[in-house]
Design brief:
Layout: H1 3-12, H2 18-28, H3 31-35, H4 39-43, H5 50-58, H6 61-75, E1 78-81, E2 100-105, E3 114-119, H7 125-140, E4 144-147, H8 153-163, E5 168-171, H9 185-194, E6 196-199, H10 211-221, E7 225-229, H11 236-246, E8 250-254, H12 264-271, E9 275-276, H13 280-287, H14 311-319, E10 325-326, H15 327-334, H16 338-351, E11 354-357, E12 361-364
Parallel strand pairs: 3-4, 3-7, 4-5, 5-6, 7-8, 8-9
Antiparallel strand pairs: 1-2, 2-6, 10-12, 11-12
Helix pairs in contact: 1-6, 7-8, 8-9, 10-11, 14-16
């Protein structure tokens, strides 16, 4: 078995993650040699106990490798190892880098300028709107936009990049033959038209919870920086931000309402030194000194693709404009009771659709 093929096979062995993989490589000098080692030799490697040693010894490497390569070829999936020139440069710099990447679509030199945008699955309309706008603007500036294709913020991020006809990369926490979440099937197809979907997990790997922190380190590792939009304390998006910090990447955070749990993580990141983001320009300003980016963003008149307001909230939002309106005028035009209008305006402001100025004047926030 050639060394490159041995990398693919060793990555498939149950229990052998990146740390074990590189420990074996250091001890034996090659992945191929690890497969011919004795049980005692394997157990002499730090982190390799009896269970993993037996897993390596009993693994049908040749047959499994052939099945994996045949299945990948059938699905149009490329397998890239850390030995290949096509392996992404930024990702190769991080600790415990993935030994193997599975890729649908194409990775290229242009992806050296990538920015990750991540956030909560349980997102608000405000968060999704901000995420989509940032992805749209950054994509128009030539950056590849990276996220995890989860529901909520991630989905909005990919959609924003696609609306700008830019490149976007989705990093999965499962094998590339197992779509997750199922609701994003059409989105996955759209991403593949101009971008890529990648994973470090062998084909057939289910999207179990333990896979997602590993996925998150790839999201940050392949990017110049990570922008967090809406994240409760302890969320996966914060894990991605911590990986970014450890990897020497820039960390950005979008502030939110103090009344929402989904703002707590972002506010904590800002207190810890993350750059506060209100516009895409805030991100570019931080990246420009080291990277070839546009001097300024062209104004686009961008509008959010979704407005999930219903009933009386939708009625009131339609009355708002870029010009401030007094609350009395909104009461008169809407035909709603004064107390109801006041309550609706508070809700719209919390959701990010409305902004209040002095003198009970209100206008659209975006």
């Amino acid at each position: 078995m050639k060394e490159r093929q041995a990398w693919i096979a060793l990555n498939m062995v149950p229990g052998v993650g990146p740390l074990c993989f590189y420990a074996l490589l250091e001890r034996f000098g090659s992945a191929a040699r690890a497969f011919s080692a004795t049980e005692a030799e394997l157990q002499s490697v730090p982190g390799i106990g009896p269970k993993i040693a037996r897993s390596i010894l009993s693994f049908p490497a040749e047959a499994s490798l052939k099945g994996e390569e045949d299945r990948a070829r059938e699905l149009g999936i490329k397998i890239i190892t850390g030995l290949d020139p096509a392996y992404p440069g930024h990702l190769g710099q991080i600790p415990s880098k993935p030994p193997v990447l599975y890729v649908r679509g194409d990775l290229g030199e242009k992806d050296q300028l990538s920015i990750a945008i991540v956030g909560s699955r349980r997102s608000t309309a405000y968060g999704r709107g901000v995420a989509e706008e940032l992805a749209f603007e950054l994509s128009r500036c030539g950056l590849t936009v990276v996220s995890g294709m989860a529901l909520g913020i991630d989905t909005a991020v990919h959609r924003g990049a696609l609306r700008a006809r830019g490149r976007t990369i989705a990093v999965w926490g499962s094998g590339l033959d197992i779509l997750y979440p199922l609701q994003n099937r059409k989105l996955a197809e759209e991403i593949l038209e101009t971008g890529a979907i990648i994973s470090e997990f062998p084909l057939g790997t289910a999207p179990v919870p333990g896979n997602f922190p590993r996925r998150n380190r790839i999201i940050s590792g392949i990017s110049l920086g990570v922008v967090v939009v809406e994240a409760d304390e302890g969320s996966g998006a914060l894990i991605t931000a911590h990986f970014a910090s450890d990897q020497g990447r820039e960390v950005f955070a979008v502030p939110g309402s103090i009344y929402l749990r989904g703002s707590r993580g972002c506010h904590r990141l800002i207190r810890m030194g993350a750059k506060l983001v209100e516009t895409a320009e805030d991100i570019l300003e931080e990246l420009r000194p080291q990277h070839p980016l546009p001097k300024e963003i062209e104004k686009t008149g961008w509008k959010p693709s979704e407005c999930q307001l219903e009933g009386e909230e939708a009625i009131l939002y339609q009355l708002l404009s870029d010009q401030p309106l007094h609350i009395d005028e909104l009461i008169q035009k809407s035909g709603l009771l004064p107390g109801k209008v006041a309550s609706l305006l508070i809700n719209l402001e919390i959701k990010g659709y409305c902004r209040q100025e002095r003198g009970n004047l209100f206008l659209r926030a975006r």
